[in-house]
């Protein structure tokens, strides 16, 4: 049949399946999530009317400055993402296209994912409390720490929770604030031994941090490259690998003495 058609007609006939495939792909749901900068919250203060960090069993300090945990917002696990959404997000600096399985566990229902994120947050809060008290030489038998942050899940606020507890109990160790009065943001998981872990979505979190007034951003050292990729003007990156390293960097920054690492 094609031999009896002119060349333009034959090309048009052959192109039809390709066009149909592209049209189908344009509207078919794809296994991706589109993420953007999310909320930030000052762990030294209140969020949605509830104090984030509450401590009993030990004297606490009145702090100045802010320690802001950061998040990303991603399309939901049950929300369809089309080719158009992917292409739009791919070329925008304020969005990122991520495999859905890297954002949400594959095969889980929305309720199961929410439960998983809630459990990760609880584990992160427990680890943050243990890491902070261990760093300060205090016992969880004597000091009770309660952490509350509504509508946020996952483990990535661990480092900021830990620093918030330390600032409320001990500040910089010599009467000053760990923040030095600055608006400091950051991200990173925390282990009970003080190890800081990578989290993902850092380039979007730096944008959220700067949007909400932060001038310093604590980033897991392994993610320096990602953080520098779309770094907002006016935001200083401080890479960390351990809780001690993070505290030392903040104290050096506050006092203007010693070295402050950079990416």
UniProtKB/TrEMBL annotation:
GO terms for molecular function: ATP-dependent peptidase activity; serine-type endopeptidase activity. Pfam families: Lon_C. SUPFAM superfamilies: Ribosomal protein S5 domain 2-like. Gene3D superfamilies: 3.30.230.10. The keyword Signal applies. InterPro entries: Lon_proteolytic, Ribosomal_Su5_D2-typ_SF, Ribsml_uS5_D2-typ_fold_subgr. Residues 1-28 form the signal peptide. Keywords: Signal. It comes from the Bacteria. Residues 153-236 form the Lon proteolytic domain. This is Lon proteolytic domain-containing protein. The keyword Signal applies. One of its GO terms (biological process) is proteolysis.
